[in-house]
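User: Hey, quick favor. My workstation is busy. Could you predict this chain's structure for me?
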Amino acid sequence: MNKRIISVFGSSAPQRGSAAFVEAQRVGQLLAEAGFAVATGGYVGTMTAVSQGASDAGGHVIGVTCDQIEQFRPIGPNRWVQEEIRYPTLRERLLHLVTKSDGIIVLPGGIGTLSEMTLAWSFLQVGEVAAQPLVLLGDLWRQTIEAFYTTEYVREKDMKLLSFADDAETAVAHIVDYFQK
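Assistant: No problem, here it is.
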């Protein structure tokens, strides 16, 4: 596949019709319309929403799944996943989503989403992954980073690895702009 792949992280909690679900669908749609493939964790919540939005817009949807998750949550990938990449462990799944992408959008989420975002940020900081956009969507991330940020521990140049967006359009615009430089 010749398309750039954008990993999208987010919560499994949002239900169809909720504001978070609709926004995630829009992210998937806009990424597909801009010519990107999308990769998600492949299951429910915002993963389903992003997958459906991208698929409905004619995009390619990759679901990165794992046996470990399905042991405690016995569901398979959502029906919009066109290409499933499966790993035995959550660790391998996470590493794939962070290291095999050309950009990342992080939707609101909980502990799992926080760990995905911080791993991606850390890998960008130390050069473990190639330079790429890391876009944090929503006020939750602004508040989280503001609460965490201190010049004593986080350098300004590392803060510049993050882009913030208030809506799906702005998040995808950050991705598109990055590759038009």
